[in-house]
Amino acid sequence: MASRTVTSTPEEKLVVLESSTSASSQGGSQYGLKFAAAAVSNMAASAVSNPVDVIKVRQQLKTATPGIRGNAFWTVGYQMARTEGVLSLGSGMTASMMREVVYSGLRLGTYEYFKDSLYTAAGGSLPKEGLTLKVLAATIAATIGSFVANPADLAKVRMQAYYPNGSPYRNVFNCYAAVWREGATKEASSPFWGGLRSLYRGVDATTVRGIILSTSQICSYDQVKQSLKKRGIMEEGIGLHLTASLFAGLFCSITSNPVDVVKVRVMNDKERRYKGVVDCVRSIMVNEGPLAFFKGFGMCWARLGVHTIVSFIAFERIRGLLGISPM
């Protein structure tokens, strides 16, 4: 009976030892550095991909028939540059940076913490390299990150939207205040909770999208990287990071785009045309058809593809500079 407690290989023994001591030895140091590395790398990725993100949001907010030329990404981008100026492609940059610190810092920066913690809590019953453990860890990290970052995400969408008479927001803090007032005014009997609910409008769609995106992006990157290394196809390095991130970017774009469309519509709904996420889904299905859930997919893929490549390569590079082992 005693032999059942012995791990089968030296490598497994090392994994168990590292997991059991991680909370005390690296919880306060390496996990904190991983959070910082995740935040910085994703801020860099968002800075690069912000113009594509703005065009994607503009496409998703259009309620016209899917496939019309006026909603093609090159048409939207050209119209923005011509009528609003090239700088309009940088709309929402400050809100985007705030969002990445919280959202990506938590969803990517705490992924390995939850992975190690769940493995230790399960007593090794969940394989360290198994997909189940990865999905569970990514789900927990993404849920926390998406919820906490919802106000910044909402402000980003509002500041990236099109306004015929010019943006009503002077800066990101003015946007927060305006969103708060919307809710406080509509719920005069409870202005505080009304304002708070307004900042968290669309949080259900945001959280679902965060879970879908993170599990498909982080887990696919982790799994592809692990598989390529185990089979001896590629070794640790930028080539492996690029290959794994290319696959992860495509996969998470396909899975998250429908939820992203709903999230953007609900967050930008100042007139409260939608009663909530379910009503928004119903409205899109009835009035625009199922293909409307893939509005902006080209730009979503371009944005998430670029974002995924830059963020993971930067994340791995920063880890190396900080003396942390590769993901």
Give a description of the structure.
- The protein has one domain: Mitochondrial carrier fold, CATH 1.50.40.
- It is 71% helix and 0% strand.
- The protein is globular, with a radius of gyration of 21 Å.
- 41% of the residues are buried.
- The chain has 13 helices and no strands.
- The chain has 327 residues and is mostly helical.
- Helix 1 crosses helix 5 (111-121), helix 2 (30-61) packs antiparallel against helix 13 and helix 7 (150-160) packs across helix 8 (172-186).
- It is a multi-pass membrane protein.
- Keywords: Membrane, Repeat, Transmembrane, Transmembrane helix, Transport.
CATH architecture: Alpha/alpha barrel
Total domain modules: 1
State which percent range the strand residues make up: under 5%
Give the N-terminus to C-terminus distance in angstroms: 35 Å
Please identify which CATH superfamily we are dealing with: Mitochondrial carrier domain
- Examine the coordinates and then state which fold CATH places here, giving the name of the CATH topology: Mitochondrial carrier fold
Mean pLDDT: 85
Helix content: over 70%
Organism: Gloeophyllum trabeum (strain ATCC 11539 / FP-39264 / Madison 617)
Family: Belongs to the mitochondrial carrier (TC 2.A.29) family.
Keywords: Membrane, Repeat, Transmembrane, Transmembrane helix, Transport
Protein name: Mitochondrial carrier
